[in-house]
Amino acid sequence: MAVRIRLTRMGARKRPFYRIVAADSRSPRDGRYLERLGHYDPRLPDGHPQRVVLNEERIRYWLSVGAQYTDRVARFLDKAGIVPGATRMRGTGKRAQQQAESGS
After folding, report:
1. Beta carbons of 5 and 59 less than 8 angstroms apart
2. What are the counts of helices (DSSP H) followed by strands (DSSP E) for the chain?
3. Domain at 53, CATH number
4. What is the domain extent for residue 80?
């Protein structure tokens, strides 16, 4: 089973709230998951301590057994210091290649 650490959308219409979960990669976005690992509330300001809450111990466990993370979760893990340098550059064009070479 391929496990992904990803977001599932919760909350009401136009009031999103996301859970960070470990789930089978084949399950739907808001479907069944294996374990809740934290949450993310995009409506809170950037510096607020409750904007992104992570269970670092369990995230490290899932990463140790081979779980992959999505691009958005990689940003959270990088910022929290769990997986330094996890943020990936996206894109395939000439500009993306130049940015990857310069390292910024």
Report:
1. yes
2. 3, 5
3. 3.30.1320.10
4. 3-102
Q: Round to whole Å and give the CA distance between 41 and 7.
A: 11
* pLDDT, tens only, 48-101: 999 999 999 999 999 999 999 998 899 999 988 898 877 766 666 777 777 777
Separation between Cα atoms, residue 104 and residue 100, nearest integer Å: 7
Count structural domains, the chain: 1
DSSP state, residue 50: T
- Asked if 56 and 73 count as a contact pair (C-beta separation under 8 A), the reply is no
Residue 88: what pLDDT? 65
- The helix or strand, by DSSP H or E, that contains position 16, with its residue range, turns out to be strand 15-24
Q: What is the DSSP letter of 2?
A: -
Segment 23-48 mean pLDDT: 92
